[in-house]
Every structure is written in structure tokens, then in C-alpha cells.
Design goal:
The complex is a heterodimer of chains A (113) and B (116). Chain A is an all-beta fold and 113 residues long. Helix content of chain A is 0%, strand content 56%. In chain A, the strands form 2 sheets. In chain A, strands 2, 4, 5, 9, 10 and 11 form a 6-stranded mixed sheet that branches. A 5-stranded antiparallel sheet of chain A has the order 1-3-8-7-6, with no helix packed on it. Chain B is an all-beta fold. In chain B, the strands form 2 sheets. In chain B, strands 2, 4, 5, 6, 9, 10 and 11 form a 7-stranded mixed sheet that branches. Chain B has a 4-stranded antiparallel sheet with strand order 1-3-8-7, with no helix packed on it. Chain B is globular. Classes of the chains: A mainly beta (113), B mainly beta (116).
């Protein structure tokens, strides 16, 4: 089955700096790659996603890039703010049949004011 | 705010109790999920209902029993749990099920379960 690796496990940045989180996947059939933000005591919130027919997607301060050849995708957050502090999970999916997302192990991002 | 609503937010139960977790969505989504999340770990899939039929059971012990009364509701019945079952239980939904699934998954806030 699919195996998703995520790095780093923890990341601290100064407010205003950029943060980058990287994930690799193993199954070349995976074609959907969402990113989730989970704040303390809350459920994961979908913040951005990308499909395999697209190389990059941007939504305000958040962007995701996908390299299908290398089987890796990354989350980029620019101009970080304290409210960006959370755990971020990447995931990969081959939506054939019932959906099953394979999650990375998570990155705890801390934005220092 | 999430449009997947879970109740209760917190639940404490003994190993001999019977309790239920409830999940509701009114987005017209046709697939619903139960995930289990331990501290500092990613969510782990337990069950998937697609068009109100159980389509995936990830070898979950029988002390967890899912139920999908209709396309908007999902329950998880709990009986004879163990302390190691203490975790955050997350419900999620996606717009389509089965072969038409497009991948998007929307989570509720979770029910934090403590088994004494």
C-alpha cells in the first residue's frame, strides 16, 4: 500500500518568515494530495489540496507543489503568523473505490512572535 | 466552522459501559468515515460508509460497532472498551462515495474518549 513520509517533525520559525514542509509518497498511482491543519483540541481542517495533473497551486499565503516524477510534494507558508502554529498533515490518495487517505506523520509548526 | 458535527465532545466511560458517538452532516455528502487518532499521531481509518453501506472495515475489534441510519447520520457504538481505546474519534465525510470519489475529506472536531 501507499507509504507517506513527512519532514520535519517539528519546525520553528520567526513570525514573518516562510515555512516549508515536505512529503514523499511511494505509490505512483496516487493522484490526490491534501494538506490538513490541526489545532490543539480540534479536528483536521483541509487547507489546500492538489491533484496529479497540476504542478502547483496557491491560495493566498499557502502554496503546494507536486513533483510526480520524484513522488514528492511540499507545503509552503509565506509571511507566517502566530495563528499558523498547529500540526500539519500531508496525505496521499488513490481514489479508486472507497476513499482512503494515507497520512504523513505530521509536522508541529511553531511561529514565534 | 466545520459542517460535520460530532457529539459528545468528551466522553468518559468504564470498561463495562455501553455508549455511542454521533456524527451528523448536512452537506449532502454520500460517504462518511470514522477515524481514530492517538496523541501526536495521524488519524487512522476505522470504517467507511459509502451510500449508507459499510464499504471498509479496517479490522476494527467488534467492541466498536458502526451504524449509518441515513445519509446524514453516522454512529459509533462502544461496548466493553479497553483503556488503550482512549483516543480522539474523528468523523469525516466526502461528497461522493465508491468509484466516483474525488478525494476531499472533511473532518468534524472529534469526540475525545477516555476509558477508565
Amino acid at each position: 500500500g501507499e507509504n507517506v513520509e513527512q519532514h520535519p517533525s517539528t519546525l520553528s520559525v520567526q513570525e514573518g518568515d516562510s515555512a516549508v514542509i515536505k512529503c514523499t509518497y511511494s505509490d505512483s498511482a496516487s493522484n490526490y494530495f491534501p494538506w490538513y491543519k490541526q489545532e490543539l483540541g480540534k479536528g483536521p481542517q483541509l487547507i489546500i489540496d492538489i491533484r496529479s495533473n497540476v504542478g502547483e497551486k496557491k491560495d493566498q499565503r499557502i502554496a503546494v507543489t507536486l513533483n510526480k516524477t520524484a513522488k514528492h510534494f511540499s507545503l509552503h507558508i509565506t509571511e507566517t503568523q502566530p495563528e499558523d502554529s498547529a500540526v500539519y498533515f500531508c496525505a496521499a490518495s488513490t481514489p479508486t473505490g472507497a476513499n482512503n487517505l494515507f497520512f504523513g506523520t505530521g509536522t508541529r509548526l511553531t511561529v514565534i512572535p | 466552522d466545520t459542517e460535520v458535527t460530532q457529539t459528545p465532545k468528551h466522553l468518559v466511560m468504564g470498561m463495562t459501559n455501553k455508549k455511542s458517538l454521533k456524527c451528523e452532516q448536512h452537506m449532502g455528502h454520500r460517504a462518511m468515515y470514522w477515524y481514530k487518532q492517538k496523541a501526536k499521531k495521524p488519524p487512522e481509518l476505522m470504517f467507511v460508509y459509502s451510500y449508507e453501506k459499510l464499504s471498509i472495515n479496517e479490522s476494527v475489534p467488534s467492541r466498536f460497532s458502526p451504524e449509518c441510519p441515513n445519509s446524514s447520520l453516522l454512529n459509533l457504538h462502544l461496548h466493553a472498551l479497553q483503556p488503550e481505546d482512549s483516543a480522539l474519534y474523528l468523523c469525516a465525510s466526502s461528497p461522493f462515495g465508491g468509484l466516483t470519489n474525488t478525494g476531499e475529506l472533511f473532518f468534524g472536531e472529534g469526540s475525545r474518549l477516555t476509558v477508565l
